[in-house]
Amino acid sequence: MNDLHAWLSQQHHGLRTFQIFQQKLERLGRDDPAQRGLCRLLSGVVDSYVEAFDEAPLPVEVADGAYRRLLTLLASLDLHGDATRRLADINRVATCELWR
Q: Please, which domain of life does this record's source organism belong to (predicted)?
């Protein structure tokens, strides 16, 4: 996730970045089966955002907020934490909404 966070922190906040991010999550889930569930949850969070604004105007304020929330969420994940921490991370991702 550190690599994803570093990559994302250098990107523009447009929808294309979120779509590429989903592709990166898919690859990470394939390459690191221990992270597959978390990758799917993150992808679902991003997917709801992308679908909501696909082919629709995306206000800059919304894009900035979603981008910042995703960066913050990624930075908060502890992939090496104990089971309790991992479950808390998974629950936080599962309830995250990037744009509402």
A: Bacteria
